Every structure is written in structure tokens, then in C-alpha cells.
Amino acid sequence: MAERTLTVASAHGLHARPAALFVKAVTDSGCAVELQKGERKINAASILGVVSLGIEHGDEVVLRVDGDNADTVLDSLAAFLEKDHDA
Amino acid sequence: MSGTDTRDSVMRGVGIGRATTVGPVLRMPEPVADPVDTPSELEPAAEFERATTSLAATAAQLRERGEKAGGTAAEVLDALAMMAEDPALAADVQHRTEDGATAEFAVHAAMATFRDMLVGMGGYLGERAGDLDDVARRAIAHLQGLPAPGVPDSPEPFVLVARDLAPADTATLDLDLVLALVTTDGGPTSHTAILAREKGITAVVGAAEASALRDGDIVLVDAENGTVELDPAQERIDLALQRTQTLEAIRAQSSGPGRLADGHAVPLLANIGSVDSAREAAARGAEGVGLFRTEVLFLGAEKAPSVDDQAATYREVFSHFADQKVVVRVLDAGADKPLAFLTDSGEENPALGRRGLRALAAHEHVLRDQLTALAQATADSEAFVQVMAPMVSTAAEAQYFCDLAHELGIEVAGVMVEVPSCAILADHVAPRVDFMSIGTNDLTQYVFAADRLLGTVANLQNPWHPAVLRLIEQVGAAGREHDVPVGICGEAAADPLLAVVLVGLGATSLSMSSSAIADVRAELALHTLDDARRLAALAVSAESAEAARQAVLDAAPTHP
User: Fold this and answer.
1) Is A40 part of the contact surface with chain B (CB cutoff 8 Å)?
2) Residues B188 and B240 in one domain
3) CB-CB under 8 Å, B78 with A16
4) Structural domain tally of chain B?
5) Contact (CB<8Å) A52/B82
6) Which residues on chain A are in Cβ contact (under 8 Å) with B93?
7) Alpha helix locations (H) across B70-128?
């Protein structure tokens, strides 16, 4: 399992469009991905779960990836979250 | 049709516009009722299987719609599809079916949990919470074997038959495919009617018998006569299409300022509510603006915008109408468009409450600021700006408003005539104002004591009614006597034949949705002022709205 703590860069946080794009990337990876903000952990393949975390710009989150190529997948998902998708 | 078909072959409603269209019916499905929590009669696994099948089908439907729509709509619909397929949702649904719920109720309840969570988060996400309801309703309709809610999908053009259209429905309506709109509820001021008028779509509203129409029925929708004919004969179709072509030819030839056949000028102005609609009106050949609804700029504001902010917006609107008239209506808050800083909450009957000028007089600083901003913007512009007050009931109120407007630098100040008392006392109001403008929508609602937004009394909301026309006649006469212009700025002016009658009653200018201007211009050009007065006299002496319209139709000499 690969794990990383990072800061979300999207200006409006992980809402609606960036959330949908993120969940799509997670599902396409075929890995089991967990996203944690504070105490709450959710299945990152769930758009309702991701959205329910209410992640804002600058929030710190933990990303955990389990499966084939976990490290590569973690790199690309982390890069996604560290990019500003509202720009 | 089989001999057992007992449906009426001609259904009547109120026509919007004057075109005629033939096409197949597609019905807007009835809304899906929320499921109740009855215990399941199936095994939990079987219920869960039903739920996942329907959720998957819903996701596929949404994606298919998205692919057709393309662009932003595709992204939004794809996000909705992801919600239907969401693993967290599926887990919640499974949990509920294991506890004995039906698939319908499990989907409904699980989706409601997520919706409430989104609402609790507020902001943008809270606003999108309604999307989840839409997904749930689609899945529940699929579970029950009902058609998906919302505007039906069709690759072929169709006549849409609905109870009434909600603003959300019209947003997803592909207008290129809609040949005509028919509603069973709703009147000439309903949302459907306003949309039809704006977009120039043939429509018949409030045709109750149209509820018997089925998908695939061929109907002829005749807006001119307000009828929907089931299985029309070929000769009827040919005649109707020929008439539509004649109308289009006339419309194509008409351009320039509005005038009667004898050259009598009737300026054709536009009703606008924003900078965008100002642009559109200018592009469609409006000779100015007869009603600039300023409250639209204020909706949602906690407090009135500053004088400078207001003046900047007004300047932008005025810039589109150099050397033309722009009639600005000061804030008309209340009833269906409350404003936090003007409207009293808790009125039992807001349409009869402290709205319009009544609310402004009670908060005079708001009125003073707006008049000041208008005077500033006018000074910097080349438009002929005139300002009027809504909901004026007495001559004293008219005097109050015009005095205040003049004091704050507005040169031309007038009043809207929409409360019957103001029309009845028009001979006392006219000498106190620079112009009058008749708001036919509210005038009709108050004359008949019939809420203009209520479908069940929509049959009374007809500006062709002699009860309304007689009041307009009085206002016209008072205007002539005191040499005060009388404009019309309700939807009545958008009905070409009624527009002729209004001119005959003394209207000196007509203001309408800018999409209606070409038709009205074409119709005016067919009649002299004497014709118009003769037709007006026929309408005023009729017994009902229908009789008035029929009398005018029969007597209009050159009518195609």
C-alpha cells in the first residue's frame, strides 16, 4: 500500500467538476483508493463520498492506494489533487 | 383512429402567437410519486438486484443524454451518472434492502440521506442537491416501468404535451425539436406561455382536454384560433400551412418603425430586464424600450445596490438606445418577486399587499437613491429616458411620485396603470403625469380578482375580455383629452390582432417581448386608424373574451 499526505490546490476545493474528474481517475486506475480528511475516510471511487468530505482549497488530505502499480497510481492521483483545476 | 375513440377532435385553449403546426404528440411524463415504506415481498438479494439494475440503467440514460447534448451539459450529466453508480450509495441501498425495504424505497431513502448531507454543506453543493432528487426519481421511474421524468427524448421533431412546464424543464428543452407546445394547465401568463412568446414557438396553453392525447397522435396546433385538432384532414393541414407561409412572407417584408396602413405611427418597444435583453431588443429592431424592469437587477440582493453601481448598469442599458426612448420602471418588489430590503414578510395576500410604489414610499430612501442613479445615468446618455412607478392606485400617489422624480432630476415621469382604481380615475391621474403605461397582466388579474400565476383560475386571465378593454378605453380617452401618451406594456401588446384593438382604444405605443415585434408590426400595417377604432368598438361591446376576439377576427378585412 502506498500513502501520501498532500494539500489540495483547486481554488474551489474538490467540488463538482474536479471531484467528478478525480473519481473518474480513481475508477480508471482499477486500484482501491481511500481519501481521508481529518478523521473521516471514504472510498475515493464514490463521488458522493468525495463530495461529502467538503474539501476546500488548501485542505490537507491523506491518499492511500492499494493494488497493482500502487505507487504510479498514487503519483498521478496526487499530482491531480495538487493542480488547480478551476484555473 | 378507431370508431371507439371518444376523444374530442378539437380541443380549445389559449393560443400564443399565430402560427399553425402539425406533428406527432410526445407527452411529458407525470411526475413520479415518492415511494412509501411498505415491506418488500421479495428476497433482499432480489430487491438489491432490482435497485442496481435500475441505477445502472439510469446512469446509461444520463450518459446518453449527455453525449447528445455535448459541451457543459455532457459533463453535468456524466457527474449525475456517476452518482447513480456510486459505490457508497449502492452500499446504503444494500443495507436498506437487507432490512426489508423495497428497491424503490431503498433508493429514495439512500439518495435522500446524501441529499440532506449536501444541503447541510450549503453553498454550491447545497444548490446541486436537487440533482440527486432527479437521479432518484429517474431510477424509481425505471423500477416501476414508467417513462423517465422530464422532457422526453426524441430524435424526431414533436409537439410537446404537458401539464405545464417548470423553468427546469425548459432549460433542457431542445427547441429545435419542439414543433409546438400544448399545456393542459396554465394560462397566457404561465411560464410556458412566456417561453413560447420569447422563443417564437407555436403554443396553445390551458387546453384541458389535451390530457387525453397520447404519444404518436397527430395534431394540428393552431395558435391563431387557440385550438388543437386531433387527426386533422389533409385539406385543413394544407390550408393551415398556406396561412403560415403567408404570415411568414408578410413578416419577412415588414421592417422599420411601427405604423398603421394610413401611416399613423405606433412605436414598437421592447420589454427588457437585463443588459442582455437590451442587446437582443436592439438587434430585433425595437424602437426603444417600453418597460425596463429594474427589480430583476436587484433580485437576491440583501440590500439595495449603491447609487454608483445602479447608475453604471443603467448607463450600459441606455447605451444601446441612443436617440430612442427607454421607459424605466422603478423597483416593483413584492408578490411574486420579493426583495429583502423592501418587502414585508408574512403578508397573507402579497399581491394585494405593500408592493410596488407602496413599498417604495414606505422606504423612500431606496426610491430616492434609484431616481438619483437614473438621473445621473440619463445625464451621461443619449437615450430619452422616462421613469414610471408601478402599482399606483390613486391620483395622490401619482402626484407624489412625479413630484419626487422631477425634484431629483428626472424630466419625464409617469405611472403604470395596473390597479383598476387608477384606470377608473384616469381623468384625474392624467393631468398629474407626463405619461401613462398600462400593465395589462396585473390589470387583468386585479379586474378579475384572479391570481395570474394560479392555473385553476387561468381561464379568467384573458386581456381580450371587454371588462379589461373598457378600462383601457377609459385610460385612452383620458390620455387623449389631456394630451398624455398612453403606452401598453403587458403581454397583451404581443398579440398582433389585440395590438390593433389596443391602438383603436387609444394606445400610442406598444411594448412587448422583442420576439413579438415583427408579427405585431406586420399586423398593424394592414389596418388604418379608423379600422382599428371600429374593431376596438366591436371588442369592447362583446360579452366575453372569446366573443370579442371572434368579432374582431370576423371583421378584420385583410386578415389572412
Assistant:
1) no
2) yes
3) no
4) 3
5) no
6) none
7) 71-84, 87-98, 103-121, 123-127
pLDDT for position B2: 44
For CA atoms B418, B420, B421, B427, give the dihedral sign: positive
Contact A46 B89 (CB under 8 A): yes
B124: nearest CB among A16, A23, A24: A16
Q: How many domains does chain A have?
A: 1
B559 given a catalytic annotation:
no
B191 is catalytic: yes
In angstroms and rounded to an integer, the radius of gyration of the C-alpha atoms of chain B is 26
CATH of the domain at A7: 3.30.1340.10
Taking CB atoms and an 8 Å cut-off, how many pairs form between chains A and B? Answer: 43
At residue B151, does pLDDT exceed 90? no
CATH code for position B16: 3.50.30.10
Structural domain includes residue A86:
no
Average confidence (pLDDT) over B189-217 = 84
Measure Cα distances from B327 to B332, B479, B506 in Å: 14, 17, 19
Catalytic residue among B108, B320, B489, B527: B489
Q: H-helix or E-strand containing B171? A: helix B167-171
CATH number for position B135 = 1.10.274.10
A41 at the B interface (CB within 8 A)?
no
Residue with cell 382604481: B421
Instruction: Please report residues of B whose CB lies closer than 8 A to that of A47.
Output: 79, 82-83, 86
pLDDT tens readout for residues B32-49? 788 888 888 888 999 999
Element (H, E) at B386: strand B384-389
Characterize the bridge pairing of strands B227-230 and B10-12.
antiparallel
Residue B37 lies in a domain: no
Q: Compare all CA atoms of chain A with the CA of B132 and give the residue at the minimum distance.
A: A48
Per this entry, what is the length of chain B?
560
Could you tell me if residue A64 is inside a domain?
Answer: yes
Boundary-marking domain end, from B195, B229, B248: B248
Closest approach of chain A CAs to the CA of B92, in angstroms?
Answer: 12
Q: How many other C-beta atoms lie within 10 A of the C-beta of residue B9?
A: 12
B196 in the same domain as B61 = no
- Which residues constitute the domain of residue A48? 2-81
Cβ distance B89 to A48 less than 8 Å, yes or no, reads: yes
Domain final residue, candidates B143, B169, B192:
B143
What is the pTM assigned to this prediction? 0.64
pLDDT tops 90 at residue B348: no
Question: Which residue among A15, A24, A49 places its CB closest to the CB of B124?
Answer: A15
Residues of A within 8 A of B114 (CB-CB) are 48, 52
Q: What digits encode the pLDDT tens for the residues A15-66?
A: 767 888 899 999 999 899 999 999 889 999 998 888 888 888 888 999 999 9
Domain match, B20 and B162 both: yes
Is residue B271 situated within a structural domain? yes
The range of the structural domain enclosing residue B240 comes to 10-28+150-248
Do the domain assignments include residue A13? yes
**Is B180 found in the same domain as B94?**
no
Separation of alpha carbons B209 and B163, rounded Å: 11
